[in-house]
Amino acid sequence: MSQDKKPHVLVTGGAGYVGSHSAVALQNAGYTPVLVDNLQNSNMQAVRGIQKLCSQEVPFHTIDVRDATRLHALFQDFIEAGNPIRGILHFAAQKSVGESVNHPAMYASNNVGGLGTLLHVAREFEIRHIVFSSSCTVYGEPVHVPVDEGTPFQEAESPYGWTKQASERVLRDHAAAQNQERIALLRYFNPIGAHPSAIIGELPRGVPNNLVPFLTQAVAGVRDRLTVFGGDYPTPDGTCIRDYLHVMDLAEAHVAALQWCFAQKTASSVVRPFNLGTGKGASVLEVIKAFEHVTGEAVPYVMGERRSGDVVSIWANASRAREELGWTTKRSLETSLADAWKWQQTLKRE
Ligand code: UD1
To answer: Minimal CA–CA distance to 6: which of 64, 87, 94, 74?
Structure first.
């Protein structure tokens, strides 16, 4: 139990990729993160990294968010210690599209069931400030780009996508049933990179699905080469376009969103979605070129078949986050890729 008097904020999935960086950003902003994680897809290396970057004892508990009894005991402990948990950043969830197709019930249980349990316990303790880790996947193949928060959802393309749509619905219903809930739904575009210290970063389990971890592993020689999934899309260079943002920019958005939650004063509940991206799209080939330019390393790659389920082009209209959260991305694509490479080199040395 931490003894400091800074406000405590629960960070579920605190040992994961976005959770760990957000914990550091929270601490930088004057909060004490309370990390919980079931360590199913993460490990203690991230927790040690957070402790090092925060230069203080950061509370960590191995808890699965579906375990209502242990969550209850945790909230109770902080009340008894005189500094209750004031808000929640909820990251704990699974995020692999392919895995979700093979294990849809597991995704429903972890992602939707976990959220339900967490909210049920939070309600008992009257914790009303909640920042939720959503995804641009909720939009499916968008009818126009850039997408703003009013863009209608398409049918989910995968069980994973459905869990994010369903979770947003659960949060809206939770808020509608009560007063004074303050909930931010953060729809991430494509987070990449690592903390500039390279003390924490992404630790993909097995073969990475995502572009940048695969790319850095290919350059490091862990993989033979990167396959570019499709060169015949209707885009200027034929490859898919995404909105890549630095994970520390994304982490800082969570602090801004939490502060936004704390600032809401209406008697009724507020639930607000925010797109988090740079507002600029980059194609797969542009990412490869930017990486080569900033690191001086050649990327071994081949053009391959399209990957099923990929949307052609998506990038964010992030003006709501700028206007209402006072947040914009500060780090460029090049900086993000340089930090991803620095992190990969750290992993290689271990
Ligand atoms: C994917 C998910 C998204 C999820 C996110 C989690 C899909 C359709 N979307 O986003 O819902 O929130 O991961 O991190 O899976 N690429 C290659 N070669 C590779 C890997 C990727 O060319 O080895 C391409 C992809 O085709 C895509 C781009 O790189 O055009 C980005 O892919 P990725 O990093 O997997 O992210 P998304 O597919 O956008």
So the answer is: 87
